[in-house]
Amino acid sequence: MKFENIIMTIFDYRNYGNRLQNYAMNAILEKYGNCTTINMSLHNTHFWDSHVEVVKERIKHMYSVLFRNDHALEFRRAEKGKLMTKRQIPSNSFFATEYAGFTGRRGCSYNRVVIGSDQVWNYLWLSETELKLRLGSFVSNNHPIISYAASFGVSEVEDRKARAIFQQYLPRLKAISVREDRGAELVREMTGLDATVVLDPTLMLTADKWLEITKGFVSDGDRYVLTYFLGRPSDEQERDIQAYAKAHGCRVRRILDLRDRDTYVAGPQDFVELFSKARYVFTDSYHACCFSILFHKQFTVFNRAGMTGKSNMNSRMETLFRLFDLDSVMMDSGLAPEIDYRKVDRLLEQHRRESQDWLDRAMEE
Questions:
Q1: Are 358 and 341 part of one and the same domain?
Q2: Which residue range or ranges hold the Polysaccharide pyruvyl transferase domain (predicted)?
Q3: What b/e readout covers 274-290, taking b as 16+ CB neighbours within 10 angstroms?
């Protein structure tokens, strides 16, 4: 089969933002022809190891059906991410592993590679070989490569070997766009090239488009404040959450928090639905902010403790808030000022047009 475009991104069934941005990236590329995502989830590459992994997955599935402990809940959540990927994101034609490199099923070919989005270039998580793959090292000169909303996930590239890899492979890209202001600065510092800051793919789809994939995970009439933290809220922040919920007659639903076991098993589609029906959102997550914006939710972002220096992930937040003039939502504690969604919507439409215009130009042959 001939694909017009193949997507190179992180492939993680357990990560909400990753699965949803991959779905969105696939959706926005459909206007340029059929596309598929390179499956990079196969860490075991030897024949015997692959069969062992299949057996392990079957055992985990039986375990999750029979039990409700933490491990079983985690597997059920991952299974939902895997099922969503199977149904919504074509990804069974091309594969990439550190051991075997880039491979494709017999008869499959492609015209163009699109790298992104998410922290696809976070070298702290990758071997040198994997970083090269994420930069399109497998692509011949006959196939154009672009990046859309790619992220380094760090504020500095301090490792000399990683810098050398970026300096070698970034100039091979036909067009470079990134998700954060700091990402554009890193591209310029390492290569002298210009990179354009564009919207995360999740923000390129309308709220109505997102609601099409929801499955009725949230019951009618459920009044709740929603939390989604990748760090751990302080005691003061937790008191703020509880105080808001009590004052507004809501319970607290907690994504990715084992204190709320019913919500813990939410898959990517359930994640979208939880945001669409929340009365208020407290978070420290970038994609939680994106979906709060899409569904016009009032929200507060609590600063994440202990995230400084090269591990600081707030650069993506800072860019998002600059684009939508929302600096006031980030707090150490308390409640953010009310968001004017008429203004936010105007900015969203403007940035969508600019991002789409960039993509249209980049995708020209």
A1: no
A2: 15-304
A3: bbbbbbbbbbbbbbbbb
